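Exam revision sheet. Question 4 asks you to relate a sequence to its structure. Input first:
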Amino acid sequence: MLSRQIKSGERPFKEVFADMWGSLNIPLDQAFEVMKTSLRIDPGFQSFHNFCIQNNIPFHVLSAGLEPVLRRVLDHYLGEEGSTRIDVIANYADIMPDGSYWKPIWRHECDFGHDKGQSIAEHRDSASVNSMIPLIVFVGDGISDLPAARHADVLFARKGLYLEKYCLQNKIAFIPFETFADIQTEITRILKADLEKTGGFGLPALFNPRAHSWRLFSNKAAVSLYDTAPSTEEPVLWVDDFSQHNPEDVTAVAAQA
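Answer key, structure tokens:
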């Protein structure tokens, strides 16, 4: 019922989300034992994670969910050591040790509590400090991914789901995918083509100036940074973010609704 209320617009996401988590009266450890019985992971996710590690590609997960819950999910599937190789950027949570109180702490003042587009912009800002503007590759599927779509240089949208429909309706360029195996194949191709075209110098071949222009118009606080940034831009891969062919200049970001 809660999912239907969100999709119909009957109730806002944050209100439903707060009610859902607030109804729990169980410690996080016990709650996750119940949750993991219904968890499903993309069959290509672990292989893609290993691909990123082997190629020194930082991997980020952007989510409208709760950071402590997502961290447990990654610990469960990847082991604690593997999980530490992924940065989780999500809403925070105030959870009492005895489980008697669960309250989401919103990361941003927006409909989903976490504005993924703003998180990408913040990443660009931090990279700009070192005279680098990352080339963002974003992987998503759901409604909470829409704010990030226009901020990406390369966008992957899962076939048949909300983000793909939104991109088609709004004429936003994207690459459709079914599993992370598809993404790994495409990223390997992109990096190889980029190296052949640029020789590892200057902007990446798929650098999208429109994504940066959109960010300037949608985030006025960023204008001064870009006005003073050096003219030589050296981008980064997330599954949200790609840079030049050099794996150490690449970052990856996957979105979680």
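Marking note for examiners. The two ends are 17 Å apart (CA to CA).
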